[in-house]
């Protein structure tokens, strides 16, 4: 049985990395997928094309998650094309790492804007549709550093801790309407985002992971699929740690 | 064509599951009709859809009874 047959899912930042994998895995489980991106048009098109080739349904929509007008247009297009929005995965995110002493205001603002405000903007925009439907699943991709803190990532950690708090509030506000909200806090997952880190940093991180390896985007996608499916029907406001045991 | 009051009444009956005869002009959403704050937000959204208009948050806050909503819609409807 397909776990998301007939459902429509919007995955933000689905042109690359974890988001692309979530989009592919949701489509493989029968979902109509909206592949959102902000800059990587070709990559987003390629993800959608791959989904269609495997017999799935996908559209590509450009929208900056922090821009309410663009996000509203994306939701409207989704409803026009597929008739509903059953699942929202807030995955889009960036890093602008720096020690706090050196961090510039714009490094702080950019990350808070996309990683935290973006989740608020997208959640608010789908809520209207999901409330009407009396059902919906919101899955927020936070980060384990939002739980444990991380030197050199004040902006990112603040945003991700914020996402975890926002997830709990979303869960409480919308529970009576059949809408659940949960977060995933991945540890170190192999994508472009972590590729950029130096070998030294990667080795140091590896030493903190009990399972002794980095995670794969597919492993995050499996958890997202669980949270988006009926299997997680009695779970809301929670944060799943997917970090090889870094935080226990 | 139904009147504004009839259309508003229908939206309220559908959304709040109350009886039609309870929806009097002086009935307040939260006091008499048992709506919680989220119900009120939803009602406003549905009235926006029903009458194809935008109701700002400030205006929505000033509507506490059925009569307030009807008066607001009659005054601001674009037709
Ligand atoms: N990799 C990890 O180890 C790790 C760990 C914990 C949490 N996470 C979180 O997981 C999520 C995905 O990370 P990733 O590693 O897959 O990153 P990635 O490979 O760098 O991909 C980021 C994605 O976000 C999109 N994006 C960026 N800014 C956007 C905006 N303003 N509007 C819409 N889309 C935007 C990008 O699209 P364009 O290229 O089109 O701009 C891209 O598809 C992020 O929230 C990240 O914080 C990652």
UniProtKB/TrEMBL annotation, chain A:
One biological process term in Gene Ontology: fatty acid biosynthetic process
InterPro entries, sorted: 3oxo_ACP_reduc (IPR011284), KR_dom (IPR057326), NAD(P)-bd_dom_sf (IPR036291), Sc_DH/Rdtase_CS (IPR020904), SDR (IPR050259), SDR_fam (IPR002347)
Domain Ketoreductase as annotated: residue spans: 7-187
Binding site for NADP(+): 13-16, 91, 156-160, 189
Gene3D superfamilies to which the protein is assigned, alphabetical: NAD(P)-binding Rossmann-like Domain
E.C. no: 1.1.1.100
Pfam family, one: adh_short_C2
Record: active site: 156 (proton acceptor)
Pathway connected to this protein: Lipid metabolism; fatty acid biosynthesis
Molecular functions (GO terms): 3-oxoacyl-[acyl-carrier-protein] reductase (NADPH) activity; NAD binding
Catalytic reactions of this protein: a (3R)-hydroxyacyl-[ACP] + NADP(+) = a 3-oxoacyl-[ACP] + NADPH + H(+)
Keyword terms, alphabetized: Fatty acid biosynthesis, Fatty acid metabolism, Lipid biosynthesis, Lipid metabolism, NADP, Oxidoreductase
PANTHER family: 3-OXOACYL-(ACYL-CARRIER-PROTEIN) REDUCTASE (PTHR42879), 3-OXOACYL-[ACYL-CARRIER-PROTEIN] REDUCTASE FABG (PTHR42879:SF2)
Family in the record: Belongs to the short-chain dehydrogenases/reductases (SDR) family.
Function as written in the Swiss-Prot or TrEMBL entry: Catalyzes the NADPH-dependent reduction of beta-ketoacyl-ACP substrates to beta-hydroxyacyl-ACP products, the first reductive step in the elongation cycle of fatty acid biosynthesis.
Assembly behavior: Homotetramer.
Protein name (database record): 3-oxoacyl-[acyl-carrier-protein] reductase
Species classification: Bacteria, Bacillati, Bacillota, Bacilli, Bacillales
Automatic annotation (TrEMBL), chain B:
Keywords annotated in UniProt: Cytoplasm, Fatty acid biosynthesis, Fatty acid metabolism, Lipid biosynthesis, Lipid metabolism, Phosphopantetheine, Phosphoprotein
Boundaries of every Carrier domain copy: 2-77
Pathway in which this enzyme or protein is active: Lipid metabolism; fatty acid biosynthesis
Post-translational modification: 4'-phosphopantetheine is transferred from CoA to a specific serine of apo-ACP by acpS. 4'-phosphopantetheine is transferred from CoA to a specific serine of apo-ACP by AcpS. This modification is essential for activity because fatty acids are bound in thioester linkage to the sulfhydryl of the prosthetic group.
Main localization of the protein described in the UniProt heading: cytoplasm
Transmembrane residue ranges: none
O-(pantetheine 4'-phosphoryl)serine found at: 37
Subcellular localization, as worded in the UniProt entry: Cytoplasm
PANTHER family per record: ACYL CARRIER PROTEIN (PTHR20863), CARRIER DOMAIN-CONTAINING PROTEIN (PTHR20863:SF76)
Cited function: Carrier of the growing fatty acid chain in fatty acid biosynthesis.
HAMAP family per record: Acyl_carrier (MF_01217)
Family named by the database record: Belongs to the acyl carrier protein (ACP) family.
Name recorded for this polypeptide: Acyl carrier protein
Taxonomic classification: Bacteria, Bacillati, Bacillota, Bacilli, Bacillales
């Amino acid at each position: 049985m397909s776990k998301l047959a007939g459902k429509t899912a919007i995955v933000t930042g689905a042109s690359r990395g974890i988001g692309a994998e979530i989009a592919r895995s949701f489509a493989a489980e029968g979902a109509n997928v909206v592949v959102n991106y902000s800059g990587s048009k070709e990559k987003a098109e390629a993800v959608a094309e791959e989904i269609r080739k495997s017999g799935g349904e996908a559209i590509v929509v450009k929208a900056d998650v922090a821009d309410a007008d663009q996000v509203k247009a994306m939701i409207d297009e989704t409803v026009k094309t597929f008739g509903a929005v059953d699942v929202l995965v807030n995955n889009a995110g960036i890093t602008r790492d720096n020690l706090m002493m050196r961090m510039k205001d714009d490094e702080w603002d950019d990350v808070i804007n996309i990683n935290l405000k973006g989740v608020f903007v997208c959640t608010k925009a789908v809520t209207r549709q999901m409330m009407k439907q009396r059902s919906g699943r919101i899955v927020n991709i936070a980060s384990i550093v939002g739980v444990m803190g991380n030197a050199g990532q004040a902006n990112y950690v603040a945003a991700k801790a914020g996402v975890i708090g926002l997830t709990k509030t979303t869960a409480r506000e919308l529970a009576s309407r059949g809408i659940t909200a949960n977060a995933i806090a991945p540890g170190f997952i192999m994508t472009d985002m972590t590729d950029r880190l130096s070998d030294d940093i990667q080795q140091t991180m590896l030493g903190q992971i009990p399972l002794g390896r980095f995670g794969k985007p597919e492993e995050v996608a499996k958890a997202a699929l669980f949270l988006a499916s009926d299997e997680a029907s009695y779970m809301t406001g929670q944060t799943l740690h997917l970090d090889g045991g870094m935080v226990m | 064509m139904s009147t504004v009051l009839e259309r508003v009444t229908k939206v309220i009956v559908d959304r709040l599951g109350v009886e039609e005869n309870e929806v009097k002009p002086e009935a307040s959403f939260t006091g008499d009709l048992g709506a919680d704050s989220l119900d009120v937000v939803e009602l406003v959204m549905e009235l926006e859809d029903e009458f194809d208009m935008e109701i700002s948050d400030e205006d929505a806050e000033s509507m506490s009874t059925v009569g307030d909503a009807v008066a607001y819609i009659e005054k601001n409807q674009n037709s």
